[in-house]
User: Fold this.
Amino acid sequence: MKRLMSGLPRLGLLVALMTLGAQAAAPPGPFFNGFEQNIDGWLPGFDRDIVRKPSGYSNAGGYASGVPSAAGRWHARLVDLTGCMLQCDGPFTRWGGYSSTFPGGGYLTQLDIYLDVNWAATHPDARFDWLSAINQSTPPSPPTHRRDWAFNAGTQLIGDLVPGFWVNAATNSTRGSSFPENPCPSPADPISNPPTGCRAPVKITTSGWYTFRHTFRAGSFVGCPESTCLVVDFDIVNRSGATVAHWTIRSNQDPMSLVGGNRYGWFSNEEIPELAIDNSLRIGLCRQGHGDGEMHGHDSHKHKVHFHKKSPCNDRDDEDDNVQDDDEDNGSHFRSNAITASSFGVDEDSQTITIIGTGFHNGLPVGFTMMAVDNGSLAPGVFSLVLTDGYTVVGSLESGGIVIE
Assistant:
């Protein structure tokens, strides 16, 4: 499974204990579906349906024929329902549910999309618009739409001898309102892109999977009518993790008092037959994990374990980040004294946290790597601790629990 952040190698036992399916926690909790078992959380559009296909799926030389999935053994394809060729309504996701509350620290949504440059070479001006919408902050039920934030993408125009996909960022989408090659799409943002506020399009000329990411955060800048307004980062990242395109829109039309949480992700226009997608994700930027409980480790000893880790946030953290393990059979004790790195990950039906640092094992200094898995209601949480002195403990909690959010 693909991770939001590049993580550290996990123990084989943890991989074996993780299960498959689609995960959706109540916003602003995580949503993830990599299409390994189903398309839960996604719905068809009027003109395009969404179906699962195995890695390496062949469509007789059509779009992205034979390509491996971005991760795992399956991905999704957007297939035709109506014979539509231009301005086609595509599938969408509600990211697990709409929200009127902007999460503390912000959130991001992302989707992997395969760009087939060989197909583009013989199909000029074929477009798709992939957008992530945000709600109003007011609390009516259901939450109400505020604004769309769109990647406008399309193949080269007739006469352009270099095949590829032009992409830009805007608040408009569809053929009647947007154009991928537009050198100055709406809205203008002189703060992010001085002096005119324009955003130049980027042309991608190498086939492959690309992550299209929207990051929503609050920021202070000149022209904002309140202390903070909405800032949206648009990023396209290739398989090696390199950013191939980046744009920022600082919106003085969106003071944070009016901005709510996520609405939908939607292909508001999808003109490419069997466009390949994978790894749909919505996740908060401010994350935390904590665990307390007892378990029998692989050494058959009874262990009492504890950890707490919170990612950097504006909120006050009332508990120091730390990791502890007590072997109640032989009296062995470990407690961390410094955390040097951590990462959070989302898989289908589970979430993980990895923490690295230093501490003391029976009074002697050691380094440590801790991993924990929150399996939700499907299975007990899993805890693993490896010390540089050779001490290792892995097990499933028998009491207490692990919560990653």
